Amino acid sequence: MDIQQNPPVRSWTFMVYLAGDNNLQDYAVKDLDEMKLAGSTADVAIVAQIDRMSDSVTRRYELHSGTSLEDDVEAELPETNTGDPACLIDFTSWAVEYYPAHRYALVLWNHGSGWEEDDIYKAAERMGTQPRITRQVMRGIVSSKKRALFRSSLEWYVEDPERAIGYDDSSEDFLDNAELKRSLEAVRLRTGRAVDLLGFDACLMNMLEVHYQVHELAGVIAGSQEIEPGDGWPYNDILNTLVHQPDLTPDQLSTAIVNAYIDFYQQKFPDVAVTQSAIAVNRLGPVVAAVDLLKQELGPDMKDWKWGRLHRLTLGHVLGAQKPLNRVFDIAPFPIGGDANTVWAAVVTSQDSERCTMVGPPFRFIADLSDLDHCWGLLISGQSGHLASRHYRDGVKPWFEGEYHTMLFKREEVEQNLEARLVLSPTIGSALTIDSAPKPGSTPEIDSTPKADAA
């Protein structure tokens, strides 16, 4: 160990906390070797701590190119518990003290599972036949080559779908989100400010719920909202960019991480679907406000959130614009799918508790261009605007179910299928009468002949 007592202040200190006391330990060593390909410089310090399953020693490194991994060891500690926030706090405090910088990046490397937390080890004990899930049994169970949903591989075998990070199989412990927040608060206390970039080299951690927990403790967060393959981040590509451009801002570095990650998997594993994103957490305000509004409108349980409860259609009659007549004349509101960018085009432009205004196609028409006498159509409100007519709203159900009726254009076909005839004569002073009870076999007509006593 050869650490300077008055170390220079660098542009960046890039800290990686490798919780490898689980089935990912081989990937952890591989990633250390990738970091060494870039190596620390006078402007960038690359430091790491790793706890492995194969021994009882935790090692800290300042990683350099052109040396062996053993040469880069700066400290050896007894067996640690990476699921204990004190362990993460101690590592970051050590890195900040001996490798001060203008900017700090902290990467948490492990399994991960996002926003919920649960003691998966106790869950496994409850579900297992043995009184205790031992380290040896875990080693026999875990064999996945992927990072199992940013959680310990063991959780594939239990039912509790809870979330956290920093799983340590030897200690049967993990960092829940509250402990992660506490650890980052300690970093802020030590440095006097939030960490500039927080990285999750793990699965499922780039979730709004996780971001909100730490939104005051990091400038930018980089990570995946989906499963990460076992190879994780391409550290050589990421850190080569940083050491050659030590003046990168946190936003620029996070962009470089995303680009390097996507490029790596597209080139090396084009059949593997991956995600990676960078989030400026100081801009979460509008998103959080939207989620709060959804909670008010739809309730606290997200399983009950349905698009149709917010996206509704009212077929408004002209007389229904005057309340409370809307309750008599308006049709609905109905829950409706779609939006402005779907084939089922439907955009709600305004709504209150009783009436929703929507932009969309009330009349649907399908034309057979090879035979224009055979077309199909449907008007959602039906063929009548009269409240008492049986055709006032008879188009609603088939419209929602995607049904159509044949459009008739030839006179003989219209006459054969005629139900009622409306005759309009534009004569001043005329009145309309409707033969509402036609004789069997006759056609009902609307008579619009002038009345002698009409004004």
Number of spatially distinct domains: 3
Classify the secondary structure makeup into a structural class: alpha/beta
The helix tally amounts to 13
- Give the biggest beta sheet: 8 strands, mixed
CATH class category of the largest domain: Alpha Beta
> How many β-strands, per DSSP?
20
Indicate the radius of gyration in whole angstroms: 34 Å
User: What distance lies between the first and last C-alpha atoms, to the nearest angstrom?
Assistant: 111 Å
Q: Could you tell me the strand content as a percent range?
A: 15-25%
Helix content: 25-40%
Morphology: elongated
CATH topology of the largest domain: Rossmann fold
CATH-derived architecture of the largest domain: 3-Layer(aba) Sandwich
What is the strand and helix layout of this fold?
Layout (H helix, E strand, L loop, with lengths): L9 E11 L4 H14 L5 E9 L4 E6 L10 E6 L6 H14 L2 E9 L10 H8 L7 H7 L23 E4 L4 E3 L1 H15 L3 E7 L6 H6 L4 E6 L11 H10 L5 H19 L8 E4 L4 H14 L8 H4 L1 E4 L10 H4 L1 E5 L11 E5 L4 E4 L3 E4 L8 E5 L16 H5 L4 E3 L3 H6 L4 E2 L10 E2 L10 E3 L8
Parallel strand pairs: 1-2, 1-5, 5-8, 8-9, 18-20
Antiparallel strand pairs: 2-3, 3-4, 6-7, 9-10, 11-12, 13-14, 15-16, 16-17, 19-20
Explain what you see:
By secondary structure, the protein is of the alpha/beta class. The chain has three domains: 10-287, 3-Layer(aba) Sandwich (Rossmann fold), CATH 3.40.50; 308-419, no CATH class; 420-455, no CATH class. The protein is built from 13 helices and 20 strands. It has helices spanning 25-38, 85-98, 120-127, 135-141, 177-191, 208-213, 235-244, 250-268, 285-298, 307-310, 326-329, 396-400, 411-416; strands at 10-20, 44-52, 57-62, 73-78, 101-109, 165-168, 173-175, 195-201, 218-223, 277-280, 312-315, 331-335, 347-351, 356-359, 363-366, 375-379, 405-407, 421-422, 433-434, 445-447. The strands form six sheets. The protein has an eight-stranded mixed beta sheet with strand order 4-3-2-1-5-8-9-10, sandwiched between helices. Helix 1 (25-38) runs parallel beside helix 7 and helix 7 packs antiparallel against helix 8. The N and C termini lie far apart (111 Å).
